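Q: Joint fold for the lines below.
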Amino acid sequence: MRLKYRWLVIVCLLSSLSLSAIAQNGWKAGTAKINITPKENMWMAGFASRTRPSEGAMHDLWLKALALEDQNGYRSLLITGDIIGFFKNISDDIRDQIAAKHGLSRAQIILNSSHTHSGPVLDNASLDIIYPVSEAERNKIMTYTASFKGEVIALAEMAFRNLEPVTLYSGNGVTRFQVNRRNNDVSTLTKVSELKGPQDYAVPVIKIASSDNQLKAIVFGYACHPTVLNGYEWSGDYPGFTQIALEKQYPGAMAMFFQGAGGDQNALPRNTVPLAKQYGLQLAASVTRVLEEDMKILSPVLTTSYNEVDLLFAKSPDKNELKKMADTNSGYLKVWAEHMLKKVEAGATFPTTYPYPVQAWKLGDQALLSLGGELTIEYSIKLKKILGPETFIMGYSNDVMSYIPSLTILKEGGYEGNTSQMAFGLHTTWDSSIESRIIETAIKTAQQAGISVP
Amino acid sequence: MNKFSALKLLLIILISVNTVVWGQNGWKAGVARTIITPNENIWMAGYASRTQPADGKIHDLWAKAVALQDAKGNKSLLVTSDILGFPKDVSDYIREEIRKKHGLSKAQIILNSSHTHSGPVLNKALEDIYPITPDQQAKINRYTSNLASEIIKLADAALNNFEPVTLHSANGVTRFQVNRRNNPANLLTVLPELKGPNDYAVPVIKLTNAKGDIKAIIFGYACHPTVLSGLQWSGDYPGFAQIELEKNHPGATALFFQGASGDQNPLPRHTVALAKQFGFELAAAVDRVLEEEMKELSPELATSYAEIDLKFAKLPTSDDFKAARNSSINYVNKWATRLENQVKNKEKLPVSYPYPVQAWRLGNQALINLAGEVTIEYAIKIKKIFGVETFVMAYSNDVMGYIPSLTVLREGGYEGDTSQMVYGLPSVWEPSIESSIIQTAIQVGQEAGIPFP
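A: Joint structure:
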């Protein structure tokens, strides 16, 4: 054997060794899903305008989990669900229990809600302000919420029990059915020749392939309110249709949708089932494109980080202001004012801050930031400017306490900047430091997770 | 039988009679299709940058036809095709043959090209931009004359196969196109806003036969089929959209027509996976329209057609030729040589170009059909004039060059200026171009009985 070939053999041997080493010490992933469609008709979340409970299902609602373990045995858990939001009262309880059972910190757990407006109402602060529910309906909500929590915890266990060797890939796609709903007039949509931003058209995708190279799971996101549908049938809205389409196209794979910074983004036009399907299929087509092209392979190193930053409230309204609001308003604003007035008269003091969750994961060299609340799109745009355009941004994670307006939106006011606070049962708007506090905390959290600032 | 049931019976009889009459005097349609994928690997159309001919196919190229006949027997013919464009002489020949055979005037015929950039080069179309050998030219000539006779046969097939149908129309929406002049493609992922002008409309006509089955789906979008730039035949995103729709609706023929997409590109682009994505996105937008309520079109067809002289701004001078001869760009040299030879041979350079403008009215659905690489502002203006539900087609009957809006003309750049040489035209268009075309569109629209809303 000539020297040259001997070297070649050695190199080949070394590479096979290193391949099997990666297979043994690479990523592991476990998936699980559970049907969470309510067994009885109950009140539907998201719109104050509904006047009666649900009437059957268009398709099932799902909770899905992805457990990850890196080459050093470090773990994390992503849960996505066809629900309006993991509110603090629900999320804290779930995360505490999962953390205790599996030895995880909050940094290692993401609970993301798709924010579908065709899912069930869960117990939270806004319940009595926006939904005109009877005592009987209220009881159904409490019962569903309690069993929902149990389902999430059970799901986490299933996912961790199913860990198997996998390879992880990531890439960003694009589609453009969302529209900045604050800066474009829905009624003239077919007549305008330009749509105003800001917007973020990215479709972040993580592909999880099992050791026999079968597609095991597809994690993907988009920043757009699932408010195409406003009827009375349970539905995941456009993300529901996307997940169904992808799971049909890739038999055996689980498709998980996460909501991005869709606070001020609507799918337009809307309000018909064929449109929800259209957008669902369009999102699925953009995910398929990413899966078919070259994706970045993620080295099996996971780091996570989590902080809660105190967001400051602006000045609270006093008794006179509340009285005036109760007298001059109707609908949820009136209900809110009366509600707050009762609290003030009972001697309650309002909190001056709110603990806002900011989280970062680094999967190989894929950066992922996960934030709470109805995050508006400028946060996504700014964070990508700071951390690079390939960064994945999740909103609606771990807590949905309110809208999270950018400074611009806060100062413009309107629904996302002002009046939505009342729909969420908060006593006042955020103060002007909101954007800088969140961005600063996001940078700190990202850096703690080892995400570099390019 | 009491009085009430007798009345009911009478009503039922009247309704059935009415349905029968409607069936006899309603729309009739004939649908036909033929594969036009070249049998030999000839040069591919649309890009100057390709350095070799085609070497295979992603999927077949098609020409498709719908012949229509209204309650009074008025006829029309729409042909759609996976080609870059029908050059004037090819289009004139095809339309003349169809006139002789079937008695249809130019007003009654639309030859639309999807403008796919993964189809074959035709004779006398953008001839200066491709590095073509005589052997390649012979293949192109063979293909071109063959295509013309295939389309004439296609017209025969459609016009000889009428059956009763109902027609419905409506507009959908999708947004994978981007105004390519006003947005830098390389910054696309970091731009928080895309500049217009755009037209996101997806016009759809549904033809349903007497059994209630969808017989044909005619749909459009204003966006260059330039996702793909490889060496395999493909209809690009419209090809994928048509395949998907025909899969979703077995037995139906899906016909794509190109809109005013002169300045609209699908972005991002250049991968097969993206061509599929945009094809599926367009198909999803069409399926949504088909699933929702559509406007039923009464069986009344009116057509109108005019050719106007679009004026060139000036004739090139000997200095222009000299500069062009010294250019480093190959097609610019060729342009100078060819036009200078024409001048030397005492051939007059044209001062204007006969530009076709056409209108169809199907019941109360207005359709304005233009030629050339029409930029999007024409669609926007025509819809302001005739209503947002108007359908606007471009790349029909002749593709002689870009048709810039006044704004694009004055800004210059590719669509306003330099593309004229690519097309072998003597100079840029005159600033009267936009008002001439819009004024003529109004005139033919009115002749076809299309009202101002």
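Q: Anything notable?
A: The CA atoms of residues 246 and 284 of chain A lie 6 Å apart. Chain A has twelve helices and 17 strands.
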